[in-house]
Amino acid sequence: MAEIIRMPKMSDTMQEGIIARWLKKVGDTVKSGDVLAEVETDKATMELESYDDGILLYIVEPNKSIAVNGIIAIIGEKDTDISKILSNNNDNTFSKSNEKLVEKTIAFVSEKITTQSESRIKISPIARKIATEKNIDIQKLQGSGDNGRIIKRDIETLSAQSLTVKPIGIIQETQNVHLQESFEDVANSSMRKTIAKRLSESKSTSPHFYLTIEICMDKAIDARNSLNADSPIKISFNDIIVKASATALGQHKDINAAWLGDTIRKNHHIHIGVAVAIPDGLLVPIVRFANTKSLSQISAEIKDLGQKAKEKKLQPADWEGSTFSISNLGMFGIDEFTAIINPPNACILAVGGIKQTPIIKNGQIVIGNMLKVTLSCDHRVVDGAMGATFLATLKKLIEDPIKILL
After folding, report:
1. Residues designated catalytic
2. Residue 271 pLDDT level (bands cut at 50, 70, 90)
3. 344 cis-preceded (ω within 30 degrees of 0)
4. In this predicted structure, what is the pLDDT of residue 330?
């Protein structure tokens, strides 16, 4: 009797996964509850647990994409013929190269020997993946992470030191200087593939239009300085924008909506997705019921979610179910930009940086701290006037932030 382990669907958008590394090897005895592997999905790296007891008879090669529901492992008794199991299930991972692996597996399991598990090398999943792609022997590396853990930076540093460029095309020589054309093809991660697919679908199926408004941040700057003077939790301008957006959405329910084909869903709850940039792409963890939370609660929650996103520790509950999204590039020196809607949301707010600009105030030219925000709208759900009135409310709230503290 053998039990087939298939690639689980670990998120609503997941279509394939990558085994970042196996924590068990063929021939090991496993029990229900044992962690078998680390699986890299489109949004996080998660642990895969066994639900069965037995001997691990077969595993797929790591660092290769496996479709959801594809066979990734088999657990059973020692002499089970796994080649029949794989062929009967028409598993797309079973190829000529795997046939040899199966033969070796059967021979290995049939032998009455036991082996000691290899000493586990501390290495992050992304570092292991890059090392495998570049054929780097991780046993010879010294990690700079916590407790000697090998991290991505260690692999990149080694690669930069030992990189040899293979020239292609014409080599030009000018006063002993050799110019060489070179390139590197980097395999797309599951996350990057999903981002490309979802945003391409959003841009092609949702008729986008954009509305931009300028907001004077003078009072918001004063309020933030006053709050941070005494509070242990430091408030950012992004926290203020999240809170103000949540308050404005409560007054404009048509914006807090989604296109569902035959219907438009107007959400009564307000869950704001906050875009977080990580090396592999972009994640949008959610501040749930943001309109009910204080600035300090929002600030603490965003910091916690951002850290989890960077460490790829987010769970599906952290990113599923947003009703509105915010993307802020102000900290990177961007004055203004337009963002692609995060489906099924009807809108996303793109936030630029605060810039000192001459403005007219009380008939006088003065320097004001100005912020530009752009609302991307799905025209199937939101009309121009609806988006404009929402931005007008948002502007009033941020320019007089005492209103969002009440």
Report:
1. 379
2. very high
3. yes
4. 93
Sign of CA dihedral 271, 276, 282, 283: negative
Question: Tell me: the pLDDT tens digits for 295-317?
Answer: 999 999 999 999 988 888 888 88
d(CA 126, CA 186): 13
Cβ contact 251:393 at 8 Å: yes
Within 271-399, where are the H helices? 295-310, 316-319, 384-399
Q: What is the mean pLDDT of residues 244-264?
A: 95
pLDDT in tens, 83-131: 777 877 654 444 444 444 444 444 444 445 333 333 467 787 777 878 8
Give the Cα separation of 38 and 44 in Å (integer). Answer: 10
Q: Are 357 and 367 in contact (CB under 8 A)?
A: yes
Q: What strands lie across the sheet with 272-274, from one edge to the other?
A: 208-216, 364-378, 347-361, 324-328, 272-274, 286-287
Angle at the Cα of 393 from the Cα atoms of 387 and 396, rounded to 5 degrees: 140
3-class DSSP state of 187: coil
How many whole angstroms separate alpha carbon 346 and alpha carbon 44? Answer: 25
DSSP code for 43: S
Q: Which two tokens stand for residue 70?
A: 């594809």
pLDDT digits (tens, 9 = 90+) for 23-81: 988 989 988 888 888 888 776 778 888 888 888 888 888 888 888 888 989 898 877 87
DSSP element (H, E) containing 372: strand 364-378
Pairing status of strand 16-22 against strand 65-67: antiparallel
Q: Taking a C-beta distance cutoff of 8 angstroms, is the pair 302, 287 a contact?
A: yes
**E strand or H helix that includes residue 402:** helix 402-405
Give the span between the Cα atoms of 86 and 79, in whole angstroms.
15
**Pairwise CA distance, residues 261 & 259, whole Å:** 6
Give the total residue count for the chain.
406
The CA distance from 283 to 305, in Å, is 10
Directed axis angle between helix 218-230 and helix 384-399, to 10°? 50
